[in-house]
Amino acid sequence: MKRPSATLIGIFVLGALGLIVAAILFFGGGALFTQRFTAVSYFPGSVAGLQTGAPVTYRGVRVGQVKSIGIRIDPNPTQSIVQVNMEIMPEAVKPPGSTVGTEEALPALVERGLTAQLVMQSFVTGLLGVELDFRPDVKALKLGGTPDVPEIPTVASPFQALTEQLQTLDIATAVAALQRTLASLDALLSSPALKQTIDGLPALLADLRQTVKTVEREVQSFSTTGQRSISETAASAQNTLASVQKLAEDLDREAASTLAVVRGTLQNADTAVDGINVLVDPRGQTMTQVQDAVEDLAATAARLRDLSERVDRDPGVLIRGRKR
Description:
This protein is of the alpha+beta class.
């Protein structure tokens, strides 16, 4: 039986090793030769689901991984804090335009609000990762216990904040109140009065619909009548205004003609008054003639009276005549 060649075996082994190295370089993206620096963060709560090798991301972009997880025990055992050591790739988070590396620039980034937070990678597996982001308005935890390793402050995760809020709730009291509420609701739903009210709802709805229809009909009728009355009133008002205007015009004309007549009458009256003044003037010719006529009438009346007396005494005077 012929032995296999040692040279061929060596070449095969070397080729296999070369393929393995090439595969590592290809799938690892040259991560073996990438220079990294270490940063640390301290989380006060539980980190269940966070494992070594978990991704460290910045707004979804992977910039490193979790190197190790440990526990930092304070003098008070109830205040133990989980220490997470991370490896950060400098080129992944290099500040734009900066001449220093990320490790030297990290304190300035922390001053600007760079913090670390635990985030869920998958709800199915429950695995966690570390998310870096700028959160200047959020209260962060920073211990400053490792001077030679830059520290990234931490903030509570959304699930941790929810858990803390739930811990402050009095669950037993809330459950008891809920049970009382459910019992009251059950008693209300089992009440005969409520059942009677529910049974009467269809009739009530029917009456309500009928009432609404009646109201709509009356409103429409009132609207039609009101519109007609308003139209008639407006027409009457217009006719009245026209009559008033005509009457005003007639009064203006009559007043003008009456004023002319009154003026003529006043002039005639003035003339008559002037004539009367002439007649009744004691020194006027007319009054002098009237006085003379009155005196003649008085003298004539005296003679007649004397003649009448003589006739009464002696009727024969009428026959004989007056003696000379």
